[in-house]
Amino acid sequence: MAELNADGLDPKLLEILVCPISRGPLIYDPEASELVSQKAGLAYPIRDGVPIMLADEARELEPSEVTE
Predict the structure, then answer these.
(1) Model's pTM, two decimal places?
(2) pLDDT tens string for the chain (68 positions)?
(3) Virtual CA dihedral for 62, 31, 11, 65, nearest 10 degrees?
(4) Which structural domains are found in the chain, ordered by start?
């Protein structure tokens, strides 16, 4: 059985997920329980171990959070 992280996500799933807007990589933020797309400037929430990959549900990153 796969080892799950603190949010109940399979690390292998995190390796294959991409941002639905930019098609760029996602960075897992365990403290905020989010998947962050620096390219799109969005953070997708993780709820009950399920990443919510909908632009309408994503949080826009603050300018200080964008590194690219």
Answers:
(1) 0.85
(2) 557 676 677 788 888 999 999 999 999 999 999 999 999 999 999 998 889 999 999 999 998 888 85
(3) 20
(4) 11-65 (2.20.25.10)
